[in-house]
Fold this protein.
Amino acid sequence: MAKKILFVVTSHNQKGSTGEPTGYYLGEVSHPWDVLHEAGYEIDFVSPQGGKAPVDGFDLKDPINRKFWENKEYHAKVEATKRPDQVHPEDYAAIFFAGGHGAMWDLADNREIAAIAAKIYENQGIVSAVCHGPAGLVNVRLSDGSYLVTGKKVNAFTNEEEEAVGLTKVVPFLLEDKLKERGVRFEKTGLWQSHVTVDGHLITGQNPASAHGVGEAVKKALEGK
């Protein structure tokens, strides 16, 4: 199995019509990256539009954020992400959808990235996501036409967490509700608590606090192959 992992980040940089900036959440990239990079995996980045990905949660007091941001190779990769048509799914052992509110606007309806995720999953690879990243999973269909997430245990940013940050009426849909519409068995913990759910080759985490744990769970799943 390939020693490469594909990280998906948003290209969307604004929270609806609020004028507030958003993007991928830095800690939700850096913490899984740190676990998987240290384990010897090469990581590539893709976004719906390719090119420079907008960043949110930019906190360099977090030493892992700083480690990622100051790594010249990976800083360059996230500043020049691949377009979906430049990705070959067979090259990757896993795919990971990072969160950040931007994901709610451009990952759910991106058919190209959904097709990449489906192929990796059907190649017995790992599909993983954290926080708002599972927005990228809601419309992933397998070759038999079924939704990848239907009937699976899944976790993601909760309705209560969206309410707590005051964006319930801003996001285009509520992620917990949409996943439940897809027939998932939705798991959750209290606000901002780490929660990682593993269901076979599908690994999901609830919020930024879960990002490290998702990285660890992906590493463990890949080692178990």
Residues 37 and 99 are 19 Å apart (CA to CA). The chain has one domain: 4-223.
